[in-house]
């Protein structure tokens, strides 16, 4: 390694990663007058409409529409791809892609290393955790308890929902309304604060959601044996009744008009103006102010009606520009705002791969060495050093871990990189009797949430069921696979092909089962000098398995899907093949799982430096001026998609950092 | 004449003017949409070198178009506030092309492909009012002039009879923010003279500029990053942007050339559509006629839906979104088909004919 050049500017806060966590931190800290630098490994400024259109072109042209397909995968910043996953056999790791997979089950999730982060390809599902999720150890003897509770996080959830712009109705989202039999009475009380409202009205359920609701609502499913009597005369099976519920989504719908006479809303204790939906960035600001149901949420929303972190990052930059302008206006001689003035307050340095976090003798971080590369595809770089007062790693659970491990950070707990979790994602698919309008609307607009909590969680994992709106896309590569089958197998063409294709595809239904994982020290990401990328950076080496606890949840989830299909008369086409990469067995049956893209839990928060990497405010136990923020901070994964929880925690961390400065 | 009769007469005159306004706003949409559809865009990528073709001009015209749609809804709100029933699907009133903008006067409006001449004619449609004083008396040749006259008539009627006599409509017929959002600015619900004048002013501002031709801005806000909401540009200037391949800034004066960023315009990436296509062009071409008929069916469904939405069935509006997508798909299908035996090549195009469906219950005016 050469000698790094020092950056001229020193900032209050240096953040690694321009995704949603980094964006929220930057925006909040700039709002309180702090100076911020973001180092982003990714190569592109997607907020320029030309780059975004280039993403779209790439998406239209690509054959396998995987989550990362629209975005450049460059030797300088490789991202994991779902196409790289193969089964892991014996002791030889699978090193096909960016991840080095040690197995026994390949870790199926991916993320995106680009400006805007993985929010570019997220689905937009914006759920909160449930109170029980914070007490997994004390209630169910599984995993660990969080050092904070639901009520501690509640005001920050509100801020996160207003930052992202979530479309939902409060009265449809309480645990009671979702049909959840909470594991402790009173859990549902005060789930939302008095008078709280989501920023936008719910996105309506799709036609296919209504089809599921009409046929399956009320179906009783046994979750397990009831050990206590629960007020009844004898013990027995515990049932929950299936209920299709609207899913809160981070995409634009109709903004909510205030009821209060002040014309404002109370969000996390602050009074704010009604939400103004923002569409695309740049010249296309007119588009995307409302979801048009383009149905390509994953991997890319063509009109940016779906939230992505570029919107928050643009806010942060606008704050800096406004502050710089105000500074010039107070000067005796009026001068124009220079870009350098703005960048002295806030700079996003893209194409800058954080390579090493340097420590001084007090065990405090003294700088971050990064590799600045000029050309996106060419692995040549200049070594530079960024300096600040406080440093934040916000590059996602995996990248935070590899960077920290490569720098020898946080050694005392030996938990860094461990407790990697995901939501193992299993699908059930079939053909409905009638057309259900597949491939219309956002990827999923409703789910079945009643299995997300309950007394069964000491035996088997909780889960949620996601009702897909786009047929067998993830399950069987529809509609492309159907075209292939009809042309090559059935020799159809012309109008007949179109008719048959429409007939088949319009009846496709698919349910996704997302099951909770609890932390295990043996599920971990580490580094190995034998595996580096083209820039000489460590590739993540992952050991991963799915415990019987989660497999039991998967099995119950599968049963629930089959009962739903039965009620609706859906012809089941689900097959799990032992040659599938994510194939696993439980209790004599086989299932295939994929990753959900929910990478959680490698630097969990906790009160003890012996069992956790970071403190409850996400400051590392070992290094006074280093924070680690993101889904990695979550001690358990719960059943909710983690983005909202992570965003809420980022708001919390921003306050803590501001206090520490 | 008795008092009753003259009130009736004034109301009838207002109805005629507002109904005319409704058709006037509608008449701008087919030419704008046709120009957009004629641009080669989606699904026509060069696989070896994907590139963005005319994405910006399409977006600029689209922005104007959605504001015209807003104007239709605003006019309908004014009519409903006065207790007049807006009619969207009367074949005798619906625009046919080529036509004069204001029926018997004004610039010529045609259905043509995207080219500089057509964009210049769009600019003419949105030209500012030439003499406000004359316009208020009824001597106008521009849309702005017409609205000044309309506004004046409305004020006169309210003054003569009192607002209560004029604004007799049911409030639940108003299309509000919950029904219409995210296309061309905020809707105004109309219930008195002030809100009616606000609605009409908004139509004029978006067309020709916030202070009637002094600057490019139209007073509307485009939501942007915190503290950086931008002011939108009036239509006249948007078309000028395309002609100059450059964006305006809201502060730019009315006679200035645009001073903002560059816009890429490729006049050649356009399907050579036949000018002012009519159903007669496809008389002997059953395949093309079938596509054309399906386009007209979608257009008719749109008009029928709007008619229902403006006359008490507001829920219809949401269902019209997919219909508008159908319009685009079917028009682009037409625009890809060359007409036979023509040199140089001309392609088919949408004719924008209304076909009454048995269920639509078309109402004659009067």
Structural features:
heterodimer, A: alpha+beta, 13 helices, B: mainly alpha, two-stranded antiparallel ribbon, 10 helices, disordered C terminus
Describe the protein:
- The complex is a heterodimer of chains A (661) and B (366).
- By secondary structure, chain A is an alpha+beta fold.
- Chain A contains 13 helices and 22 strands.
- Chain A has helices at 20-31, 49-61, 136-140, 150-164, 207-216, 309-330, 339-345, 397-406, 473-476, 480-489, 494-505, 548-568, 643-660; strands at residues 5-16, 36-39, 100-104, 220-225, 237-241, 244-246, 265-267, 270-272, 346-349, 352-359, 365-373, 381-393, 425-431, 444-448, 463-468, 508-515, 524-526, 541-544, 571-572, 583-586, 589-592, 626-628.
- In chain A, strands 1, 2, 9, 10, 11, 12 and 22 form a seven-stranded mixed sheet that branches. In chain A, strands 6-14-15-16-13-19 form a six-stranded antiparallel sheet, with helices on one face. A three-stranded mixed sheet of chain A has the order 3-18-17, with helices on one face.
- In chain A, helix 1 links the parallel strand 1 and strand 2 (36-39).
- In chain A, helix 4 crosses helix 13 and helix 6 crosses helix 7.
- Chain A starts with a strand and ends with a helix.
- The model of chain A has no long low-confidence stretch (mean pLDDT 90).
- With 366 residues, chain B is mainly alpha-helical.
- Helices cover 48% and strands 4% of the residues of chain B.
- Chain B has ten helices and four strands.
- Chain B has helices spanning 3-38, 55-82, 116-125, 132-137, 143-161, 163-166, 193-208, 235-244, 286-310, 316-335; strands at residues 99-100, 108-109, 217-222, 230-233.
- In chain B, helix 9 runs antiparallel to helix 10.
- Chain A binds chain B through residues 27, 49-50, 53-54, 57-58, 60-61, 201, 252, 254-255, 257, 276-279, 283-287, 289-290, 292-293, 311, 314-315, 317-319, 321-322, and chain B through 42-43, 45, 47, 50-52, 55-56, 59, 62-63, 66, 177-178, 181-183, 222-230, 247, 261, 263, 321.
């Amino acid at each position: 390694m050469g000698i790094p050049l020092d950056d001229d500017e020193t900032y209050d806060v240096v953040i690694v990663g321009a995704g949603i966590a980094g964006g929220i931190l930057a925006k909040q800290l700039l709002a309180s007058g702090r100076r911020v630098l973001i180092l982003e490994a990714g190569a592109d400024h997607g907020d320029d409409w030309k780059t975004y259109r280039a993403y779209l072109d790439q998406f239209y042209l690509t054959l396998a529409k995987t989550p990362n397909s629209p975005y450049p995968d460059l030797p300088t910043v490789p991202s994991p791809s779902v196409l790289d996953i193969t089964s892991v056999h014996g002791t030889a790791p699978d090193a096909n892609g960016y991840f080095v997979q040690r197995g026994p089950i390949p870790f199926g999730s991916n993320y995106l290393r680009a400006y805007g982060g993985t929010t570019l390809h997220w689905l937009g599902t914006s759920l909160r955790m449930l109170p029980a999720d914070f007490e997994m150890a004390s209630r169910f003897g599984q995993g660990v308890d969080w050092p904070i509770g639901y009520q501690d996080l509640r005001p920050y959830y509100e801020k996160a929902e207003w930052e992202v712009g979530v479309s939902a109705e409060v009265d449809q989202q309480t645990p009671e309304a979702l049909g959840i039999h909470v594991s402790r009475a009173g859990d549902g009380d005060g789930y939302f604060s008095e008078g709280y409202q989501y920023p936008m009205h719910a996105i309506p359920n799709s036609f296919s959601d209504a089809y599921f609701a009409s046929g399956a609502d009320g179906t009783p499913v046994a979750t397990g044996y009831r050990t206590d009597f629960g007020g009844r005369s004898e013990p027995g099976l515990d049932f929950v009744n299936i209920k299709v519920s609207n899913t809160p989504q981070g995409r634009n719908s109709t903004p909510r008009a205030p009821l209060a006479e002040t014309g404002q809303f109370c969000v996390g204790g602050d009074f704010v103006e009604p939400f103004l939906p923002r569409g695309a960035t740049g010249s296309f600001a007119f588009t995307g102010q409302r979801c048009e149901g383009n149905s390509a949420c994953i991997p890319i929303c063509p009109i940016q009606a779906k939230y992505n972190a570029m919107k928050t990052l643009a806010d942060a930059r606008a704050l800096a520009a406004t502050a710089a302008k105000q500074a010039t206006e107070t000067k005796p001689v009026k001068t124009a705002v220079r870009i350098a003035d703005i960048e002295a307050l806030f700079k996003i340095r893209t194409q800058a791969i954080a390579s090493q976090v340097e420590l001084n003798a007090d065990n405090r971080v003294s700088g971050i060495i990064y590799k600045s590369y000029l050309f996106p595809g060419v692995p040549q770089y200049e070594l530079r050093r960024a300096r600040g007062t406080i440093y934040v790693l916000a590059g996602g659970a995996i990248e935070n871990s590899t960077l920290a491990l490569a720098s020898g950070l946080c050694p005392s707990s030996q938990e860094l990189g461990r407790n990697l979790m995901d939501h193992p994602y299993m699908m059930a698919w079939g053909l409905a009797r009638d057309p259900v309008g597949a491939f219309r609307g956002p990827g999923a607009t409703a789910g079945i949430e009643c299995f997300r909590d309950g007394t069964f969680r000491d035996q088997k994992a909780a889960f949620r069921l996601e009702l897909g709106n786009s047929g067998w896309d993830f399950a069987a590569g529809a509609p492309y696979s159907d075209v292939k089958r009809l042309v090559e197998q059935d020799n159809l063409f012309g109008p007949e092909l179109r008719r048959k294709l429409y007939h088949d595809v319009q009846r496709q239904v698919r349910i996704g089962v997302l099951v909770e994982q609890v932390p295990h020290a043996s599920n971990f990401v580490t580094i190995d000098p034998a595996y580096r990328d083209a820039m000489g950076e460590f590739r993540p080496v992952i050991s991963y398995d799915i415990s019987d606890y989660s497999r039991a949840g998967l099995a119950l989830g599968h049963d629930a899907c089959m009962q739903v299909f039965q009620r609706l008369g859906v012809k089941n086409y689900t097959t799990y093949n032992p040659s599938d990469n994510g194939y696993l067995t439980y209790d004599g049956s086989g299932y295939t799982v994929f990753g959900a893209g929910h990478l959680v839990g490698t630097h969990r928060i906790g009160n003890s430096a012996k069992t956790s990497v970071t403190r409850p405010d996400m400051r590392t136990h070992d290094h006074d001026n280093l924070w680690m923020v993101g889904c990695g901070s979550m001690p358990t994964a719960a059943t909710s998609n983690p983005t909202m929880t992570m965003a809420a925690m980022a708001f919390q961390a921003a306050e803590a950092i501001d206090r520490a400065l | 004449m008795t008092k009753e009769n003259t009130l009736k007469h004034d109301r009838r005159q207002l109805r005629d003017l507002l109904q005319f306004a409704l058709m006037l706003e509608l008449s701008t949409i087919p030419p704008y949409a046709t120009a957009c559809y004629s641009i080669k865009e989606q699904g026509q990528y060069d696989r070896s070198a994907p590139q963005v073709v005319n994405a910006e001009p399409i977006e600029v015209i689209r922005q104007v178009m959605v504001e015209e749609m807003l104007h239709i809804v605003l006019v309908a709100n004014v009519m409903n506030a006065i207790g007049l029933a807006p009619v969207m699907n009367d074949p005798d009133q619906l625009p046919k092309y080529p036509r004069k903008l204001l029926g018997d006067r004004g610039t010529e409006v045609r259905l043509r492909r995207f080219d500089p001449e057509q964009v210049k004619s769009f600019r003419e449609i949105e030209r500012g009012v030439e003499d406000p004083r004359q316009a208020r008396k009824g001597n106008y040749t521009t849309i702005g002039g017409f609205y000044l006259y309309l506004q004046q008539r409305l004020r006169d009627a309210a003054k003569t009879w009192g607002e209560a006599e004029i604004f007799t409509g049911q409030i639940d017929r108003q299309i509000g923010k919950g029904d219409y959002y995210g296309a061309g600015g905020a809707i105004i619900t109309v219930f008195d003279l002030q809100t009616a004048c606000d609605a009409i002013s908004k139509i004029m501002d978006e067309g020709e500029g916030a202070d009637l031709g002094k600057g490019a801005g139209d007073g509307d806000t485009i939501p942007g990053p915190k503290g950086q909401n931008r002011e939108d540009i009036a239509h006249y200037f948007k078309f000028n942007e395309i002609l100059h391949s450059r964006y305006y800034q809201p502060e730019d004066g009315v006679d200035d050339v645009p001073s903002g960023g560059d816009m890429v315009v490729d006049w050649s990436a356009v399907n050579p559509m036949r000018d002012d296509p009519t159903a007669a062009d496809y008389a002997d071409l059953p395949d093309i006629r079938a596509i054309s008929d399906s386009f007209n069916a979608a257009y008719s469904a749109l008009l029928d839906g709007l008619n229902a939405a403006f006359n008490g069935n507001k829920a219809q509006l949401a269902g019209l979104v997919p219909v508008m997508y159908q319009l685009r798909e079917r028009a682009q299908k037409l625009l890809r088909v060359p007409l036979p035996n023509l040199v140089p090549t001309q392609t088919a195009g949408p004719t924008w004919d209304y076909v009454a469906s048995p269920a639509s219950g078309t109402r004659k005016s009067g």
